[in-house]
Design goal:
The complex is a heterodimer of chains A (379) and B (267). Chain A is an all-alpha fold and 379 residues long. Chain A has two domains: 279 residues, Orthogonal Bundle (ABC transporter involved in vitamin B12 uptake, BtuC), CATH 1.10.3470; 87 residues, Winged helix-like DNA-binding domain superfamily/Winged helix DNA-binding domain (Arc Repressor Mutant, subunit A, Orthogonal Bundle), CATH 1.10.10.10. Chain A has 18 helices and three strands. In chain A, helix 2 crosses helix 11 and helix 3 runs antiparallel to helix 11. Chain A is elongated. The termini of chain A are far apart. Chain B has a six-stranded mixed beta sheet with strand order 5-6-7-3-8-9, sandwiched between helices. Chain B is globular, with a radius of gyration of 19 Å. Classes of the chains: A mainly alpha (379), B alpha/beta (267). The interface between A and B is medium-sized, with 27 and 28 residues.
């Protein structure tokens, strides 16, 4: 492994992928919180024509010129989207979709045109579609470093304004912040992140690098700072992992591998995060039953029956679950075993129902009386 | 008479609005508003849905472009008086799933006077905690805002405005969707602020409580129907003119007033 890590190409790949992960993780966190996840997608696709224009102007596969072109058309598309939503009846989602497909169509047309024109040097251009990590050279890294540096410095310097604007734009404006300019700046920085990742991850899948780390980090963190930092770390993890795999398996495009990794991280976060994850939440619901005695659930059935003036009233299990905020199946089964309730069916399209037995009614009434004596009539 | 910018204009009024018109697209949301509110009152803004109540607050705060007219706070423009004004937007205007704590949200109320680059420290946190204490939320200071109830979230929003120690406080439907206890405690807080000499303007939707809560009232329905001390403007006639043909409300207004159709000219 040490020998492998000393490999010059691999060093470049890992460094580049880490850079992409960090910058897109940081800015993606803001995009996710601002519900602008698809902005990255539209920007990436709109950057493709810029890649071609940059290539044509430089006459060679020169990264500085290509990234400059990509940044230019990306930002132009973003500004156009804002203008579209402001001045027409188009909503943001429609503007995003329009810009995404328009940019991609233009890019592919230019791409084929360049290829038809021939010349050996254009060979690598279509790797911008799905990304190619193995081809990364040290010279490619410098413009990436500069872009990443600018974006990170911007976020650090403007931390408070960006945070306030992300949480509550109206309040931010009231405190005197130039919210519109900050929004444009943030969009431009997201464009920077996208452009940084174009060569390695590709335009088609760059959006996952923007969304997945932020969405994953949100699951684990209770502060914006924590979320942004963790998002950067997770982004770097996905980037380096994807970069390595695709560099070691020649011919494998980087974008898809990175996306699979990032999605896996996001999926695990959605499932496992202690406070917000699905599995811990399910576990808590399940666990709560030890705090809610079977008597309380019997009482719920009893109260419902009394309110409906019918001791034979059939209660749907879903209603009992909802009332107690947990799965009551085990308790109801216990009650059934004790002969206090019996399962019943009501409407064919409804779930399982439960009905008090005569013993059940007596038992519940006695329990209610005990409680009344203990807590007074108000309880 | 020509007025020069920077010169105080109506400095004895907490809020002076003249000839204000705001329009969204082709329809005016506010039309030709004239409004004067003296310092030290607790004023309610009432009117039906779409009357422009929130828009009025936003126009005062410079959040929406004015088609015509001007607004002065204690004689000066909002930009000049930013630090003396607190704003509590509608609770539903933000995403409460944002990763932050109650005390952190209140600290955001201090960002405006901290400059762009300085990070909040001990002093800011202490001030935020005091503001949370004022609204009875200090025990939940480090709780995630997503885990707070609606009423608790509303009180965090109020604390964020209080931490600025505003002389003029604007609240947009602070009682919407909160339980009776929270509503009680909110109105207690507002009453205390008024006794301290601050001016409070509240967009309100519940006619039942108007007379108990406020000492000044603005009837709004795109135009100002009436405005002034509650005793002189809270009349069946003004209610009818504001709410149109909503009979149930009318009857209630008449019952509450009990007496003559109209108590006098609106202010």
């Amino acid at each position: 492994m040490p020998g492998l890590l000393a490999d010059y190409t691999l060093q470049n790949v890992m460094l580049g992928a880490a850079l992409i992960g960090v910058i897109s993780g940081v800015l993606g966190a803001f995009a996710v919180l601002r519900r602008q996840s698809l902005l990255g997608d539209a920007l990436a696709h709109a950057a493709l024509p810029g890649v071609c224009i940059g290539f044509m102007m430089a006459g060679a596969r020169e990264m500085g010129s290509i990234m400059g072109g990509a940044l230019f058309t990306g930002v132009a598309a973003a500004l156009l989207m804002v203008a579209l939503t402001r001045n027409t009846r188009l909503k943001m989602d429609a503007a995003l979709a329009a810009m995404l497909s328009l940019g991609f169509a233009l890019g592919v047309v230019l791409l084929t045109w360049i290829q038809r024109r021939g010349g050996a040097s254009q060979a690598g251009l279509d790797s911008f579609l799905f990304g190619q990590a193995a081809a990364t050279t040290r010279a490619d890294l410098y413009p990436m470093m500069i872009l990443a540096g600018i974006a990170l410095l911007g976020v650090a310097l403007l931390w408070k304004p960006l945070k306030l604007m992300t949480f509550d734009p109206d309040f931010a404006a009231v405190t005197g912040l130039p919210v519109q300019w900050l929004e444009r700046l943030l969009t431009a920085m997201i464009a920077l992140a996208v452009v940084t990742g174009l060569q390695m991850v590709g335009v088609v899948l760059m959006t996952a690098m923007i969304i997945a780390p932020g969405a994953a980090a949100r699951q684990w963190c209770g502060s914006l700072l924590g979320m942004v930092v963790l998002s950067a770390v997770l982004g770097a993890l996905a980037g380096v992992g994807g970069g390595l795999v695709s560099a070691l398996a020649p011919g494998l495009s980087t974008g898809p591998v990175v996306v699979l990794l990032a999605t896996l991280i996001a999926l695990l976060s959605l499932l496992l995060a202690p406070r917000r994850g699905l599995i811990p939440a399910w576990w808590r619901r399940r666990h709560r039953r030890s705090h809610t005695s079977t008597d309380r659930i019997l009482q719920t059935l009893y109260e419902l029956a009394r309110e409906h003036g019918d001791w034979r009233y059939r209660v749907e299990q879903g209603a009992v679950d909802a009332y107690h905020g947990m799965i009551t199946e085990p308790q109801l089964s216990t009650l059934a075993d004790r002969g206090l309730v019996v399962p019943a069916q009501h409407m064919p399209d409804e779930g399982r129902h439960w009905q008090l037995t005569e013993t059940g009614v007596a038992h519940a009434a006695e329990y209610a009386q005990r409680r009344r004596r203990r807590f007074g009539n108000g309880a | 008479m020509d007025h020069e910018l920077g010169q105080p204009h109506e400095p004895d009024l907490a809020l002076h609005v003249e000839d204000l018109t705001v329009s969204y697209g082709d329809r005016p949301a506010l039309w030709d508003i004239d409004l004067n509110i003296p310092p030290g009152v607790l004023a309610g803004v009432i009117g039906p849905n779409g009357a422009g109540k929130s828009t009025l607050l936003k126009a005062i705060l410079g959040l929406v472009p004015l088609s015509a007219g001007h607004v002065r706070l204690f004689g000066h423009t909002y930009a000049e008086q930013r630090r003396r004004v607190g704003y509590v937007p509608q609770r539903s205007s933000v995403d409460w799933d944002f990763p932050t704590t109650a005390v952190d949200v209140v600290t955001m109320g201090l960002y405006g006077r901290m400059g762009w680059f300085r990070w909040p420290g001990r002093r800011e946190r202490d001030r935020a905690l005091r503001a949370l204490e004022e609204v009875g939320m200090d025990a939940l200071a480090d709780r995630q805002i997503s885990e707070l109830s609606g009423g608790q979230q509303q009180r965090v929003f109020i604390a964020r405005a209080l931490v600025q120690q505003p002389d003029l406080l604007l609240l947009d439907e602070p009682m919407a969707g909160v339980d009776a206890t929270t509503e009680r405690s909110i109105i207690d807080i507002l009453g205390r602020l008024r006794r301290e000499g601050r001016t409070i303007i509240v967009v309100h939707h519940d006619l039942q409580t108007v007379q108990r809560y406020f000492d000044w009232l603005i009837f709004l329905n795109v135009r100002v129907i009436a405005a002034g001390p509650i005793d002189s403007v809270y009349t069946a006639r003004n209610l009818r003119r504001t709410y149109g043909g909503q009979v149930a409300l009318l009857d209630e207004g008449r019952q509450r007033n009990g007496g003559p159709e109209d108590a006098g000219p609106a202010g």
